[in-house]
Design goal:
- It is a single chain.
- The chain is an alpha+beta fold.
- Helix content is 29%, strand content 32%.
- An eight-stranded antiparallel β-sheet has the order 18-17-23-14-15-22-19-20. Strands 2-3-1-4-5-11-6 form a seven-stranded mixed β-sheet, sandwiched between helices.
- Strand 26 and strand 27 form a beta hairpin.
Length: 697
């Protein structure tokens, strides 16, 4: 009973939004009003507690998702403040995977921005219930109604206002609570810590009354019980409205919309009330489903302390004081510090030496972690992002996470032998922390290549190499992370025969290669019958193809979006082995792909530019000169927004050009859209090896 009460009084939430919508400021105010900190820190002053890295303080942006916790109305609230910049989208993705609810912050002036759409779709993928907080109501041009309309139009969200602002810009000082039908006004003298609850002024009663009717009607459309009362003319009180809001928010059928100004200390307490009232506890989430290793059977684990342990690791960081820290969410069971657990994803035993509850980069040691908690562990050596942790007696593998592939790469060269020694260890730790950061060695040039999600991503990682590990290195020009694929089907027959002293090697395979739609990845299928290729050798053929496809036949880029079908083959009772069939698979790949019309794919970026009206022509002309396709132009507060799709190879140096042509008055966002076939001229250039550098593209 006590365990269930603890769970029902727990909230695991994330704060997510577009860059500069006010996520970190909102989190700072939450910590202040819940008593977790006693001084307000501002992002622009570099004093925000959740932006604890030096790079975050200097740039005024969130780079890494920071976890903290607080208490409100006798509820434990675990919070993850996520980055807003698209280059760090992995931090949002892995946070949403383990959260029960989220607060989506939108700027009342800018409305729904590009990264807002991205994180909203990510939350849809993981079916995360959300509250909407329309922030910056104190700004000139703030428009609550327009922001709500954009939530419907751009996100397809059933956004339901539960508050109304009584003004906007300099006139914003209070809100009307449509559930309780009261006005809330914050006191300026104590930084909004106290507020007055008042009757709704006569001048606003008609507007508030109409908004309350709309709220009830929207709820009645979803709720049979409320519909019956509404049609019969019975009074619907605030408790019934709140209960219906909770039911349908938890079910993901609607999103309550609140408003305020975190920077001006207004609306944050009511947002916390909304988190407690409307977002689910771990006990209200469905049982987590996983697969039993070796059998493949599905199994459910209920969110209870007396269940077998199941947890998902969602983040790994290197802490300068305690070493390797692994963050994880416990879905069932209890974990004691000092105990052993089983990593079912990596098939290995791990020991938890210490358990920590995190507050940004500060730690509080705890003796045990229970169902529904988000904690960090010291001592897990093999566990990586997405691994399942469980008890060895009752193993389970939970659904992992899929991360986007990097689209930009740079070459890095250590300046000295000492730097070279440190570089390998540092890069290994960074790639361990960040699944979207890849490191490889170019076998032709011998260079170390770093690949990431964008220029800012690689710039930040390079700076971390210097600051955290003392590595001094020369950095090359950015390059596009091209891919290769095939355009038609092809079939090959491959025999690998090698005679040496003693046992030889023999493998014979017939493989068909087929193109797949963009984003499908790689699929392997066997149609061998009659045991012509023994079952134990078939996985070796697949492994051989998978290892070889890291290098394409055109320009050496990874091969994607194709299927390999093993049609037939033969074996030798003495000379055949796993290794011979693996080699045969790799040879078949090179022969088959070369016959299947290989072609180069390039990343196409979705670009949005917000600029004053007078610069619209220059912006469009510049994007067109970069072979961009204009998708649309919208009127927005303060100017126009241009949407375009542009090849990544044409977008390096764009920030400088945009600032120059608009005198620093335009802003832009850019995120990966899709891989598409590169023009023949680009393919010819890359195959010839004349230049793969974006700066000259």
């Amino acid at each position: 009973m006590e365990s269930h009460r603890r769970l029902s009084h727990t909230r695991n939430i994330g704060i997510m939004a577009h860059i500069d919508a006010g996520k970190t400021t909102t989190t700072e105010r939450i910590l202040y009003y819940t008593g977790r900190k006693h001084k307000l820190g501002e992002v622009h002053d570099g004093q925000a507690e959740m932006d604890w890295m030096d790079l975050e303080k200097e740039r005024g942006i969130t780079i890494t998702a920071a976890a903290t916790y607080c208490s409100w109305r006798e509820h434990a609230v675990n919070i993850i403040d996520t980055p807003g910049h698209v280059d760090f989208t992995v931090e949002v993705e892995r946070s949403l995977r383990v959260l029960d609810g989220a607060v989506a912050v939108f700027c009342a002036v800018a409305g729904v921005e590009p990264q807002s759409e991205t994180v909203w779709k990510q939350a849809n993928t993981y079916a995360v219930p959300r509250l909407v907080f329309v922030n910056k109501m104190d700004r000139v041009g703030a428009d609550f109604a327009a922001c709500v309309d954009e939530l419907h139009a751009k996100l397809g969200a059933n956004a339901v206002p539960v508050q109304l602002p009584t003004g906007a810009g300099a006139d914003f000082n209070s809100v009307i609570d449509l559930v309780e039908m009261r006005q809330i006004t914050w006191e300026e003298v104590d930084l909004g810590t106290t507020y007055r609850t008042e009757e709704i002024p006569p001048a606003l009663r008609d507007r508030a009354g109409q908004a309350r009717i709309e709220l009830v009607e929207r709820l009645a459309d979803l709720d049979d019980e409320l519909m019956e009362r509404y049609l019969s003319g019975d009074e619907i009180d605030s408790a019934q409205v709140r209960a219906a809001l909770r039911r349908h928010t938890v079910a993901g059928e609607l999103f309550p919309v609140l408003c305020g100004s975190a920077f001006k200390n207004k609306g944050v307490q009511l947002l916390l009330d909304g988190v407690v009232d409307y977002l689910p506890s771990p006990a209200e989430k469905p049982s987590v489903t996983g697969i039993v290793p070796n059998t493949g059977d599905y199994i459910e684990r209920a969110p209870r302390d007396d269940e077998s342990l199941s947890a998902l690791a969602f983040k790994v960081v290197t802490d300068p004081y305690v070493g390797r820290l692994t963050y994880f969410r416990i879905y069932s069971g209890v974990l004691q510090a000092g105990s052993y657990l089983y990593n079912s994803s990596a098939d290995g035993r791990e020991r938890v030496t210490r358990l920590l509850r995190m507050h940004a980069n500060r730690r509080e040691e705890i003796p045990a972690a229970r169902t529904g908690e988000i904690v960090a562990a010291v001592g897990l050596r093999k566990t990586t992002t997405g691994d399942t942790l469980c008890s060895q007696d009752h193993p389970v593998i939970l659904e992992s996470m899929v991360f986007p592939e990097p689209v930009v790469s740079i070459a890095i060269e250590p300046k000295s032998k000492q730097d070279s020694d440190r570089l390998g260890a540092a890069l290994a730790k960074l790639s361990d922390e960040d699944p979207t950061f890849k490191v490889r060695v170019d076998h032709e040039t011998g260079q170390t290549i770093m690949a990431g999600m964008g220029e800012l991503h690689l710039e930040v990682l390079t700076a971390r190499l210097s600051r955290e590990w003392g590595v001094e290195a020369n950095i090359g020009m950015p390059e596009v992370a091209y891919r290769e694929t095939i355009s038609r089907s092809a079939e090959v027959v491959t025999r690998f025969v090698r005679q040496t002293g003693g046992h030889g090697q023999y493998a014979h395979v017939e493989v068909q290669f087929e193109p797949l739609p963009s984003g499908a990845g790689f699929l392997f299928e066997s149609k061998v019958t009659g045991g012509r290729v023994p079952k134990e050798y078939i996985p070796a053929v697949q492994r051989g193809i998978e290892e070889a496809m890291e290098v394409g036949v055109l320009a050496g880029y990874p091969m994607v979006d194709f299927r390999a079908i093993l049609l037939d083959g033969s074996y030798h009772e003495v000379d055949s082995s796993d290794q011979s069939f693996r080699i045969a698979g790799s040879i078949a790949y090179r022969q088959g792909v070369a016959k299947a019309g290989p072609r180069l794919l390039e990343p196409i970026m979705e670009v949005e530019v917000h600029c004053p009206e007078e610069y619209l022509g220059d912006v469009i002309s510049n994007l067109s000169s970069r072979t961009g396709h204009i998708q649309g132009i919208e009127d927005v507060f303060g100017g126009r927004t241009v949407k375009a799709r542009v090849p990544l190879r044409k977008m390096f140096g764009y920030v400088t050009d945009l600032r120059s042509m608009t005198r620093g008055r335009a802003t832009h966002t850019m995120q990966f859209g899709a891989y598409e076939a590169a023009p023949k001229a680009v393919q010819t250039e890359m195959v010839a090896g004349t230049s793969g550098r974006l700066a000259t593209a």
